[in-house]
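Summary for the steering committee. One of the milestones for this cycle was to obtain a three-dimensional model of the protein with adenine bound, which we needed before selecting residues for the alanine scan. The sequence and ligand used are listed below.
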Amino acid sequence: MRVDAVTLFPGMIDAPLSESIVGRARQEGFLELGFSNPRDFTEDRHRTVDDKPYGGGTGMLMMAEPVYRALKAVRKKSSFVIILTPKGRRFDQPLALELAKKKHLVFICGHYEGIDERVTPLADLELSIGDYVLTGGEPAAVAVIDAVTRLIPGVLKKSDATVNETFTEGLLEAPHYTRPAVWRGKAVPQELVSGNHKLIAEWRRAQAEALTGKSRPDLAPAKRKPRGAAKK
Ligand code: ADE
């Protein structure tokens, strides 16, 4: 997969995505990550990328033209273009699975108070990572690229590593434990050391359901629409 980020601050994305699993995925060629900086597409002496909003208001806005040109430099026919904004659709695991099937993703990262609204129609999707306001789209792009990269076949060494995990089945994951079997007086649940795979699976399912009901009742099975339910 190829990913390009249209950003004034490539280092905010490049550095965190150079470590650990995503860093290795880049080295091994599963993910090719590029950057297009609107500042490189300005023509004035000061390389201006922002200006005051019409109608007044605090802060500065990114101007449309440098963003447009930076996008044009990387956009291909097969590109899926995403603008990161707190006003967008909320990112979640099903969407990560969808995005992992794309050939080329382009993320447009707003900074300052955002981007001139006339840029919005250039994107296929406006995307938010949650109901809070970041200093820019870059940390959001990092989160989305991370979640998508680990779903690219081959990136995680165990082929089934993403099947039973949190959110994939609409449930939070059961708790995990590793050695020692007793740590500071706390023992690992006996089901997990029983060696009985059926018992372990049942225990995990029950834990996942209980945890989801407690921490995320909005995800709990009773609240979810049955799959394939007829639309009203
Ligand atoms: N830019 C600023 N805040 C954001 C958020 N919550 N999600 C995506 N992009 C953003």
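Key point for the committee: The first helix runs from residue 11 to 14.
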